[in-house]
């Protein structure tokens, strides 16, 4: 079964929103290291939109779909 395509608005948020706290505060969500995303997947995601975006980014990386974000990063 193929993973579902994320909502285009979510993809835009991944390349524009910055991490609001923690070790990678200020980094774009799409630029967070995979190890950090794995840590959240094991420890639990924050509540709300940020948690949803981090989970989406984790799934994108897990499924090798990072190329989806490349065209959006240049805008």
UniProtKB/TrEMBL annotation:
Q: Which domain of life is it from?
A: Bacteria
Which protein are we looking at?
Answer: DUF3820 family protein
What's the source species for this entry?
Chitinophaga defluvii
């Amino acid at each position: 079964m193929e993973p579902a395509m994320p909502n285009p608005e979510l993809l835009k948020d991944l390349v524009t929103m910055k991490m609001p706290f923690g070790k990678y505060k200020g980094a774009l969500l799409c630029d967070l290291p995979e190890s950090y995303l794995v840590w959240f997947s094991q420890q639990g995601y924050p509540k709300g939109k940020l948690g949803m975006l981090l989970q989406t980014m984790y799934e994108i990386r897990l499924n090798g779909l990072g190329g989806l974000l490349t065209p959006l990063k240049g805008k």
